[in-house]
């Protein structure tokens, strides 16, 4: 992968040079990992015209959850663990003769930005913006391979939970068990805080597990994902507990399933972000559920669980091939519960079979 990371750094260096900056400082951890192969805690990456340097408060501790830095990179350890690496990087850039330095202003506090200016007063600080985030949108096949394994681990963990007895157990207990199973199957850890929602809590997009116990007849909504070599996926499923679903549960489930299928089928290179969102949102709005819908139907995934693009009504832009996204509409009826169905997919052209589904757990309305 070292060659891949070098190519990524080269692309960024060319873009910075075209914008008038001979050097760039990358501080956002996911961006550091993307360009350097690893992002030890607190590390920043300085891209210079002649040499790239990873500045670390402490020595990298092998692969671990933060990845392994590219062996071709120079690694500088800061003299004191409490020294700010961005300030040290500004001084290093100035000492190397750089006149300007592009920085990720959206990741830096005002205080850190000012400290850099004081450390290297002759160095012009420019805004790198979201250049690296935009570079990360389209994934290579090795990145997609990591996402595919993360999805397989997630499916395994969820499948095992569905085979166990659920009635009487709390949302919090089930969430902890799912996260343990993810690690047991080889994940770095959960991709985000696992959500388990039962009964009146089900169908909510950001529900944090509580001490509510699973009861017969409940909807059970689960949203989880594994992180594998830093790459994160997402799955969401809804089930009925202990008995055949009621008529209203079947109708609501069928509606959300149809909306999610419409969103999945709209994924194609060249499709507008907002059109994918509209495809999934329209059936729910037509059925009278527009008011309580989430602001977006889906989003990109990768080294972060929520990346660009956003599949939202006001999102600008069009999908490219090899962009992994989630599609996850949901409806929550206050006091009753609801349904969420999420998948992680990779945008592929029709000639290659259309969107590639990574999360395979059944979307049939099962009574567990």
TrEMBL record:
TM region positions: none
Coiled-coil boundaries: none
Matching Gene3D superfamilies: Creatinase/methionine aminopeptidase superfamily, Creatinase/prolidase N-terminal domain
Enzyme class: hydrolase
InterPro entries: Creatin/AminoP/Spt16_N, Creatinase/aminopeptidase-like, Creatinase_N, Pept_M24, Peptidase_M24B
Domain Creatinase N-terminal: residue ranges: 8-138
Domain of life where this protein originates: Bacteria
Molecular function per GO: proline dipeptidase activity
E.C. number: 3.4.13.9
Keywords of the record: Dipeptidase, Hydrolase, Protease
Domain Peptidase M24 intervals: 146-348
Stored PANTHER family: AMINOPEPTIDASE, CYTOPLASMIC PEPTIDASE PEPQ-RELATED
Record's protein name: Xaa-Pro dipeptidase (EC)
Lineage: Bacteria, Bacillati, Actinomycetota, Actinomycetes, Kitasatosporales
């Amino acid at each position: 992968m070292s060659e891949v990371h070098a190519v990524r750094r080269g692309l960024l260096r060319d873009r910075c040079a075209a914008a008038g900056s001979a050097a760039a400082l990358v501080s956002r951890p996911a961006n550091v990992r993307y360009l350097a192969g690893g992002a030890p805690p607190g590390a920043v990456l300085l891209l210079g015209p002649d040499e790239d340097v990873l500045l670390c408060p402490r020595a990298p501790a092998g692969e671990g959850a933060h990845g392994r830095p590219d062996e071709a990179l120079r690694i500088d350890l800061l003299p004191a663990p409490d020294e700010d690496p961005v300030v040290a990087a500004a001084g290093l850039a100035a000492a190397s003769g750089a006149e300007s330095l592009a920085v990720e202003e959206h990741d830096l506090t005002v205080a850190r930005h000012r400290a850099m200016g004081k450390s290297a007063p002759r160095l012009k600080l420019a805004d790198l913006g979201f250049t690296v985030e935009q570079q990360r949108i389209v994934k290579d096949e090795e990145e997609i391979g990591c996402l595919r394994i993360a999805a397989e681990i997630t499916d395994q963990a969820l499948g095992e939970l569905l085979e166990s007895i659920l009635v009487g157990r709390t949302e919090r207990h089930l969430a902890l068990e799912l996260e343990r199973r993810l690690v047991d199957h080889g994940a770095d850890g959960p991709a985000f805080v696992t959500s388990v929602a039962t009964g009146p809590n089900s169908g909510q997009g950001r529900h944090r597990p509580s001490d509510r116990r699973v009861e017969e007849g409940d909807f059970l909504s689960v949203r989880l994902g594994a992180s594998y070599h830093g790459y994160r996926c997402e799955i969401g499923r809804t089930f009925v507990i202990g008995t055949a679903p009621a008529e209203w549960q079947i109708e609501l489930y069928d509606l959300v399933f149809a909306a999610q299928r419409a969103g999945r089928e709209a994924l194609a290179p060249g499709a507008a972000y907002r059109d994918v969102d509209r495809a999934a949102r329209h059936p729910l709005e037509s059925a009278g559920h527009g008011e309580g819908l989430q602001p977006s139907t889906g989003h990109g995934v990768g080294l972060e669980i929520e990346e660009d693009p956003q599949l939202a009504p006001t999102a600008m832009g069009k999908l490219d091939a090899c962009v992994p996204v989630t599609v996850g509409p949901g409806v929550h009826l206050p006091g009753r519960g609801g349904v969420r169905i999420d998948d992680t997919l990779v945008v592929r052209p029709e000639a290659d079979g259309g969107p590639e589904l990574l999360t395979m757990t059944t979307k049939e309305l099962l009574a567990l």
